[in-house]
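User: Thanks for the earlier help. One more: ABC transporter. Can you show the sequence and predicted structure together?

Assistant: Of course, both are below.
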Amino acid sequence: MKKCLSHTNSTVLSVAVIGIFILLTLFLNSLGGFQLDLTSNKQYTLSDQSLTAIKNVKNDVNILVLTVENANNTVLNREVADMVQEYTKRNSKLKLKQYNLTQEPALASKYGITGSSIVLEQGDRHKVIDIASLFTANGDGSDGSYQFTGEEKLTQALMNLSSTETNKMVFLTGHEELSLDQMGTLRSSLEQNNITTEELQLNQAGKVPEDTDVLAIIGPQRDLSDAELKEIRTYMSNGGKLFISLGFAEDMKSSWKNIDALIADYGVVDEHAVMVDNKQASTMGPLWVVPEYGSHAITDKLAQNKLYPMLSLSIALTSKEQDKYTLSPLMHSSDDSYGETNIAGLLQNETNNDKDADVQGPVELGYAADTKDGKPKAVILGSSIFMQDSQITNGGNRDFILNTVNYLSEKQDGLTIRPRVQAGYEIAYLDGQQARTIFFAAIVAFPLVFVIIGVLLWWRRRRV
């Protein structure tokens, strides 16, 4: 009788435990998207801006994660996939699809991608995010830590995908400027931000198109003609906006009369001196510089997130008094820098700081000109090489350019989502003995301990 009662109690207890487990499972399932994020940097917690953007998606969006798998990026690819899953959990209209890019050449060709990317597709529209652009070194990167900007860029792409607002940016040609073919990455990034691009040869067209939101002059090697200067001034007086990024030419002091006159309209003076900065120089030499930011809507967020551009052959700029525009310095070199005016000597790798002839640091490298009522009018930079394909992925180059163009275009949907700082991952390499020890402990020893405990419990209960 006692033995039968014991078996009955065991059965009732087992049924009760199973019932409680089923009820608990049903309860947790009823909570939907409820989860606790116990990671130190809240890796799985989305911002309110992202949650709002996700909620506003009304039509199906396919999110394709196309990655190239190798030992160096496995963890980073997983981090991207985990982030996308956080989006798809919160709206059934978002569908995640993962592919190995090397096994899907048709998809790579369809979307024009060559490296790991996220593609957002809605109907016949799509946006592409370069996965490499989501990761930047934190600080000097010596500890292996990095910043992850995936949430900000994915949310921005999601918003741009459904937005009908577009802007037009026209790039001037005919003066040996950087062409759109040399700035393919920038062009693609602008298009992902709903900014269309086209080139303009002003001496043939006769005028700047009326629907141009921003006129860009990137790295000119030759001067504007008098007629071109007149047309650009007409465009600007009719509400146009200007983005000019100076190039480098040996005879710029004597040949850039009209370019100098154009930027002087906004209170900026071209000193025709190449900036040399020994303090902030990167490993490439003192003509390559990571500048410091001034305070402005274009740069404040970048400075906060430590996303600094890397410039080369930058032209020193100064300002003059004028009462039509508010001029704000965007970036400058360090105190231990100077603008070299001896261009002939510089071309022979000879440069010395001549206190009387050279521009003494800190040297301004960019200005933003706003109207008196706070509207953006022009951005003048002393460098342009950092926009070409071979340089744009360095440091914060791409982020700085996109912030500049978005500011001039008066795009109001820019996001401010702080990047997550992740600790560096280390790979542990095991020798044969260590591998065997781990195998024995995990596969043999631990299971054997539980088997022995189970046998002892069975033997004890059998004796009772």
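User: Great, one quick takeaway?

Assistant: The longest helix spans residues 432-463.
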